[in-house]
Every structure is written in C-alpha cells, then in structure tokens.
Amino acid sequence: MVTFIATLNITAGREAEFERLQAELSEISHREEPGLVVYDVIRHQQQRGTYVVYARFKDQAAFDLHQQADYHQRLVPPILACVEGEMDLQFYDWVS
User: Fold this and answer.
1) pLDDT value at position 69?
2) pTM for the complete prediction?
3) Which pLDDT does position 96 carry in this prediction?
4) Which residues contact 50 (CB under 8 A, 6 or more apart)?
5) Cα separation of 57 and 32, whole Å?
6) I need a labelling partner for 57 at 20 to 30 A (CA). Which of 1, 15, 34, 36 fits?
7) Exposure pattern of 6-28 as b/e (b: 16+ CB <10 Å)?
8) According to the CATH classification, is domain 2-93 in 3.40.50.10140?
9) What distance in Å separates the CA atoms of residue 37 and residue 34, rounded to the nearest whole number?
10) Which of helix, strand or coil describes residue 87?
11) CA torsion angle for 89, 87, 80, 51 (degrees, to 10)?
C-alpha cells in the first residue's frame, strides 16, 4: 500500500476555501477510485490553520491513477494556493 501524510499550514482567511476544495477532492476520489482506501482531512484543535491529509492507496498504480486524474489536476493547484509555506509530505509503508 502507498500511504502519505501531508501537514499543511493554511493562510489565515483561506481555511474555508481549503476545506471546501479538500472535501470535493475527497468525495470525488472515493467515488471514482476503487484503489483508494482512505482520504481524510483533519484540522488541528489548537493550532488554527494547521491541517493533516492522510491517504492510503491499495498499491502504486492506484496512487498514480489518483495523481493523474483530471479532478486532481483541477483541484490541487487551488488547494496548494491556500498553503502558507511548504507542505510537509511524508510517505509511509503500511504495516497492518
């Protein structure tokens, strides 16, 4: 399985836009990608503007499909435009 965790700090005032775009990406991805296991977006309780995206795919092919999907290409640029600074993107191996 391919798993990633991305930590993002969102520019003040753009949180609602970020959440709307991420919700759309998550909804479409779950509907269109049989190889997607989970795509969750969570917000830190005390650190305003800090979010984590957790995604897990059945295999590399499923992850590649996600990356190449037209809706991914359409939604990710405006999502990244909401990010302040650099996104911390880490890949993990699924254990159990």
Assistant:
1) 97
2) 0.93
3) 83
4) 7, 8, 9, 10, 43, 44
5) 13
6) 15
7) bebbbeeebeeebeebbeebbeb
8) no
9) 8
10) coil
11) 90
